[in-house]
Amino acid sequence: MPLPFAFVLRARGSGFGSAGGNRAAQAFSLSAGFPARVRGIVVFLCMSKATSRRLGFEVDKMSNSIEEIRTGNVCATRLVRLYPSDAEMLSSLEWQFDWSIELRNPDHEVYALTTTENPGVFQGLISISDMDDHVFMDLLESAPFNIGRDKEHMGVASNLVAFACYRAFKIGYDGVVAFEAKTKLIGHYETTLGAKLIAGNRMFINTPAAHTLVNSYLKNFDEDQLQETG
């Protein structure tokens, strides 16, 4: 199967100063342990988004959508693109992160996960970037009412990750998604998402794993379900 990446080394947002050069050297050294046909991918995924935030979301259940814990009902979902003008819509909940920063970043795309029954209630948020050869997950957060022992829904985080893979397929990147993981959750993401560790805390979801996620969560998903608010 042809590889989706142009083997061009670049560090978006980090440059090739002393820190960027050291990271490049580490990436090239690491890639030597991989087959020749994937070395370019390893180097590129190591270099992109060098200063990114480590993600710490929990994948609580793998299902075909999100599930209401109280009733066991499976809820049909939609993804809505958000813009800076939508920041006020997020103020009704105490999000852990300041999503207005993500909304104002012109290089990031922010999407909200909603149910078709309650489209005005955001179940979770994700921020992604188009890295020219893959999609990068900058931030992901379940709504406060979907976190902890008394949460209302399961499957929110994995649904959002599946959407990131879907976007990577639609853009033409064979579903490949990269992100930075908190150390204690690396094994969790390997087990639940099929993600692979490249170096340090950098992980990626390859094409087969992305296929599995998209087919599990977005079986009936099509472009008409990708709505924009403005």
Q: What's this entry about, in short?
A:
With 230 residues, the chain is an alpha+beta fold.
Helices and strands in order, then pairings?
Blueprint: H1 18-31, H2 39-47, E1 66-68, E2 74-75, E3 77-82, H3 99-104, E4 108-115, E5 124-130, E6 135-142, E7 153-154, H4 156-171, E8 177-180, H5 186-193, E9 196-199, E10 202-205, H6 207-217, E11 226-228
Parallel strand pairs: 3-11, 6-8
Antiparallel strand pairs: 1-2, 1-7, 3-4, 4-5, 5-6, 8-10, 9-10
Description:
With 230 residues, the chain is an alpha+beta fold. Helix content is 28%, strand content 22%. The protein is built from six helices and eleven strands. It has an eight-stranded mixed β-sheet with strand order 9-10-8-6-5-4-3-11. Strand 5 (124-130) and strand 6 form a beta hairpin. Helix 1 runs antiparallel to helix 2 and helix 4 (156-171) crosses helix 6 (207-217). The protein is globular and about 35 Å long. It starts with 17 loop residues before the first helix and ends with a strand.
